[in-house]
Amino acid sequence: MVExxxxxxxxxxxxLREAMAGENPGQARLDKIxxxxxxxxxxxxxxxxxxxxxxxxxxxxxxxxxxxxxxQTRMRxxxxxxxxxxxxxxxxxxxxxxxxxxxxxxPETGEERFSSFLGIPIQRLGEMLGVLVVQxxxxxxxxxxxxxxxxxxxxxxxEMTELGAFxxxxxxxxxxxxxxxxxxxxxxxxxxxxxxxxxxxxxVVVTNPIADDPERELERLxxxxxxxxxxxxxxxxxxxxxxxxxxxxxxxxxxFANSKGWxxxxxxxxxxxxxxxxxxxxxxxxxxxxxxxxxDSYLRERLSDLDDLSNRLLRILTGQxxxxxxxxxxxxxxxARNIGPAELLEYGRNLxxxxxxxxxxxxxxxxxxxxxxxxxxxNTKRITNEALNGDHIxxxxxxxxxxxxxxxxxxxAFRDKIAMLAQAxxxxxxxxxxxxxxxxxxxxxLVMNAGLMADLPSLExxxxxxxxxxxxxxxxxVRNQMPKRQELxxxxxxxxxxxxxxxxxxxxxxxxxDKVLPYMKPNDEPNPALGWRAIRVGLDKxxxxxxxxxxxxxAANGRPLTVMFPFVAQAExxxxxxxxxxxxxxxxxxLGHVLPETLEIGAMLETPSLxxxxxxxxxxxxxxSIGGNDLKQFFFAADRENERVRKRYDTLNxxxxxxxxxxxxxxxxSGTPLSxxxxxxxxxxxxxxxxxxxxxTLSMRxxxxxxxKSLLTRIDLNxxxxxxxxxxxxxxxxxxxxxxxxxxxx
Length: 746
Ligand code: PEP
Ligand code: MG
Description:
Shape: elongated
Number of domains: 4
Number of helices: 28
Number of strands: 23
Bound molecules: phosphoenolpyruvate, magnesium ion
Radius of gyration: 31 Å
Structural class: alpha/beta
CATH topology of the largest domain: TIM Barrel
Oligomer: single chain
Strand content: 15-25%
């Protein structure tokens, strides 16, 4: 075999480019590529396998194997040597393929004649697109130089695959960025929206992976890196007096920007025939592949710094990016890998929908999206690779799916759905000012959950009778530093002003577990949900809690005030917290501040233990609110953030409903006002069952008030209660089926 030298690989890339520039349809191009590679590096076989779907590879072109096996031979990821390359994203290089670990014989290809095998992953920015394989009869290991040359070629094939250069035959050859795609994700905020893609951080598309003037490309690279270094130095200068962490990140950037190894590898790629931007991207791809394997969080962060730096460099080289003047469409659907709550707030209500590649239902971005009532789908794999700015897109926040570049039939079905949702909304508006009274005359108080200023207009719009849960931590979460007391006073004052005398239940800071403040040292706990969180932090480090109580009292300024403590597991914790309130009240009095007109102090019932507290506790507490999200996770021992286990336990499980009934009974005995403020309160069927169990106040997100009220006004709680009892007596695990049957008949 002829070893590839630098100039040979450049020659090969030159020939590849010519092949790509021709008028050939997709398959002919791919055939030509495999022919050229085999010819240039002197092997009998060269084949390209591309992903057909998420876990199947298909032989799409070959020089040297049986032609009949093209588009016939398929393997799963991990299967055979090709599948192994795809699974681990690593080169397999062996002189004796038939005896190598994992080899699987594909008789239709006629590959038994070939001894040596070299498989190279075809990947782009961490996404595996396929495998490039060369094989020869002669039993030998391919040299490092040959491997390197083929990696460069694989990079070019990856770019072409991305650009749709193989338009035409076979599903595996479909171009990206042109076909309709349905991407499943996880529903995080209901609603449906149609619009156009707005990439939060636009992806740079490299259109010219091959260059024929390496000198010129080296110059371009050097100029761009210089510009990058100057930019980083400038940022460092500006941040000298800023916060320490940002400085550390920038220092790391500078280190990478000056890294000799990084530069050398990119220069080498260019001398092999890649354009400057393709060389940057090749290094970025490899860093991403490393990132997916690194466990250490510090190292991962550094690799992600490098990723960010590469993006900046690519933007300089291609002139693409946020600064290119792309305009926000009229109907933007934001697409991002992830986004912080503060950035999302900046977009505000301009967005029609949000799709995140990562993210989770309980993330801060999800909380903000909910406050803004923008349909949100998270966990949407591949969306940032598939979507381009301006693409037509439909997001279904009910089902948790995304239709990218939908075809006509999807568009019309989806529009019907949007129209139906709009009709329902109109119906809800018409009952907005009516009370939620069931057919048997029970009035249910419907109040709302809030936490951001953006929530407050909903107090009017939704018909909520008050705020049953104001999550004060959200204000702490969306900032980069601890808010000052006066800022909190202003904020709480605005909340009370907007409520116009309606009751607002302020819950004190509920941090820890999934809610980690960016400016507080994280705690390395084995089980954060069971760890140092909420009132436990408040009592151990009372400084912040005192500041918050003071701010609330000053904001009330003579008006009634309601405070609730989160995650109270035993009466003692509540008593200690109430003691803090009393001390703060006394201090405020001495300082001459106007005290609240009335002060109610309640607790959240989020751990089963509190339901069994001594009767005295029920007599002492002014009110209780069941935090169903947490209570359910502890009752069933199923992490609320873990979809896999969370969904196993239905809220309408008889054990859970019986437990709720017991709590209602204890509160009735002591005359303690009780509400329910977990997510289930906003789900109409669950809400109806909670009401049947005796709950008379439900607190939910504003958008749920209409649907919940609409159902409550159509049911008789005595009937529903009988249905539940009957189902329970029959030994059902969940009463859902029986309840659904009843509801269908009303
Ligand atoms: C709950 O746990 O049900 C609750 C309302 O609190 P959070 O979701 O903020 O933990
Ligand atoms: Mg909770």
